Fold:
Amino acid sequence: MAITDQTIDQAFSDLKKTCGGVRNDYFALVYMEREFGLDREQAITQVAFGGNDYGVDGFHFDHDRRNLYIFQFKYSESHAQFKESFHRLIDAGMERIFGAKTQDQQRNQLLQQLKACLTENEAIIERVCFHFVFIGDPSEAERSQVLDKLREDLENKKYLIDQRFGRPVTVVIEFRSARTRKVASSSHLRKTHTYPVQLEETVVRPGPNGETMTLGFVPLVSIYDMYREMGERFFERNIRAALPEEKAVNRSISQSFKRIVLEAKDDPSVFAFNHNGVSLFAEALNRMDGNYKITEPRLLNGAQTVTTLARFIKANEGNKALEDQRERLGAIRVMCRIITDAEPEFITTVTINNNRQNPVEPWNLHANDMIQLELQDKFLDELQIYYERQEEAFVNLSDDDLEDLGIREYKAIELPRLARTFLVSDGEIDKLARFREVFEDDRIYDQVFNPNRLKADARKIVLCYKVQFRVGRLVNDIVDKGANKYAYVHRARNLLWAILCQAILNGPKLEQRAQEFGSGLSLEAQFTDWLSTFATTRCRFIVADVVADKLYADKVAEGNFSFLRTNAAYKRCMDIAYKRWRWVQKHLNK
Structure:
């Protein structure tokens, strides 16, 4: 039985009086009937009708395969519809299904059925399969940075499943299309990452809302072993990728390893005195036989230390000195803070504040904000362009990596440059002189990276973004019209960029230009010529009128053109542009 609008509408019409719920619930019902050959009465007991579903729309246990299927359904081609479902499942659903330290009397009847199924079949369940079913392309869902982050958060809850069954159980997470029956190319089979760890001289500190911080000294090789097995997943909570080894801080750490291990000049104990320590988040930390067991650890700060150690070990493979001094390497300890029982927002704040102690730019601290992940998805989905929200992330990608991600451009949109683009397009040019404040003041940051940016045409964002790479050339084009007359334009670069953005967005051929020049990051000669026409036939006259304004006469007489870097000057430019060409202020948010 094919799933069509008609079959869903028919089921909705037949059952809505008795089962209630919304139309999407009947997509789930029809899918369950088709996928597992269920009769309608049985399918009804395995589908959620109405709210309070904790992110679960349906379930089914296959006795032959020994698979427990847990479903989320969206009758939509947009994989973005799964975001809220993921959040509900992660924040409460997994605990309600597999943990249930507390009860909810208002929970959906489906949850009662699911828990009864678990109890009846717990001895034979071998896999728990989370299927996210929609009618779009699963490969696009697979590439989504937002869904990838949420999927990892869901995978990190696997320990609840293992605890519920008292043994490791395989978890599979898949995106599936009900229309084409395609499955994303890579299914995710997960094991729980659990490691024994020596924690010496521990101190435990409670947090404001039930969080726990355990402090102690840990062998650095233990943290390296976690990274070696988990790879980049170990850094997923961090704010940036590994920096190049030639960076000063990494060179210094590498020299420390050399002096301690290869040259035996420094005692291993000195490392803990010279190092700030590392911070981890873990789903659980349990005491066992005098030691500890850590579940699903994630590094919050200390990535450069761990990656530098990995490079040091790799660079010295086969070096007899390293083999002879393995004990010295194992004796290196670092102070370690392990945080558990914390919500994602709390961990984000901890990560930001931990990294303030190091030479990190303020925009790096926002790399994992949800709006940044959503922007990364936006540029990928609409233009197949990589958005570099994490410092140095793009340079670490191979051509094969880009192909796997669906990226067709060999340049990336950079987070700080995008922020400047949003500022100038909004006419907030005075904030460019205080750029760090954009990321240090939450109010300003939320204005610059407001959710409405996601509604903008990505091509138009790219048009305005690319202007910054040609401002110098455009300033010269204007000055060439009169070296003495327009010399002040050199001091109005940001103002010129802002006016050019409005020239673009108010242009009569915007859609055509967006298609020609907004689909990639190449700086085409025709694009530059187009900008030059705006700069020389529109912008130079606008700025000249502002400079001639009586309001600024005294400043101009003194040779003081600092007013050209103010929002007031920009506003005056827009007033002039409206009178001359009927330009109005347009924003990159719709």
